[in-house]
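JOB MANIFEST
job_type = single_chain_structure
chain_count = 1
residues = 151
[input]
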Amino acid sequence: MSTQNNPATDKAAVSVIINGKQHGDWSRYQIDSDFLIPADAWSVSLGLPEGKFPADVVRGAPVMVKVGDDTVLTGRIDGVQRAVARGGVTLSLSGRDSAAVLVDCAAPILTTRQMELLDVVAQIVRPLGITKILIESEGTIRSDKISAEPG
């Protein structure tokens, strides 16, 4: 795949903000951004001269990746790798953008009786962190039996 060069961002600093703290000076970074891929990936590595691993850098922590002043993605840390070698200590992070939850999750198996559509939708999407639900219909009916399968 060809890459585009952008003089405004090619030399800009890449920073990862975790819990409000900015981390930069990466020895290596990679940011995938493709409109056709539902969950863009990112990874960064840096040497830790003092040998101390930041305590707030853990799997699942929310992150914001910036190039210069522009936010290029928001997501979560999927993996944290710490390497200690004779040459020093290295911290490598990887993750995906916030759309990853839609790629990774499927509706749970659900079989129930006498529920309205709003209740069924709420039971399926609340584990994904969705709290606001709006069903626009003129009327609702209770179904005798409802079955939802993964996928």
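[summary]
Residues 117-125 form the longest helix (9 residues).
The mean pLDDT is 79.
exit_status = 0
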